[in-house]
């Protein structure tokens, strides 16, 4: 899943080397923390959050086979 997020986000940003995905796994949930360069935040979020919503939709669909709830957080 981490690779999927990186594959989706890196082509969108100006600084692909600064894309970082951390995984926090808990008992019944997995949280992926996506961190990008400050200048790339707008590109990852998109107008009215459309790009972020699309990324989350793909990640949630890919993780739907898992028994754990999946969350994607986007930060600088």
From TrEMBL:
GO molecular function, one term: RNA binding
Record-level GO BP terms: cell wall organization; peptidoglycan biosynthetic process; regulation of cell shape
Subcellular location: Cytoplasm
GO CC terms: cytoplasm
Matches recorded under CDD domains: KH-II_YlqC-like (cd22533)
InterPro entries linked: KH_dom-like_a/b, KH_sf_prok-type, KhpA
Family of this protein: Belongs to the KhpA RNA-binding protein family.
Its job: A probable RNA chaperone. Forms a complex with KhpB which binds to cellular RNA and controls its expression. Plays a role in peptidoglycan (PG) homeostasis and cell length regulation.
Subunit structure: Forms a complex with KhpB.
Protein name, per record: RNA-binding protein KhpA
Gene that this polypeptide is encoded by: khpA
């Amino acid at each position: 899943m981490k690779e999927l997020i990186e594959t989706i986000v890196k082509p969108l940003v100006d600084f692909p080397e600064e894309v970082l995905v951390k995984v926090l796994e808990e008992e019944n949930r997995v949280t992926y923390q996506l961190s990008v360069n400050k200048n790339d935040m707008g590109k990852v979020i998109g107008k009215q959050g459309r790009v972020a919503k699309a990324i989350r939709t793909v990640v949630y669909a890919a993780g739907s086979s898992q028994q754990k709830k999946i969350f994607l957080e986007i930060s600088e």
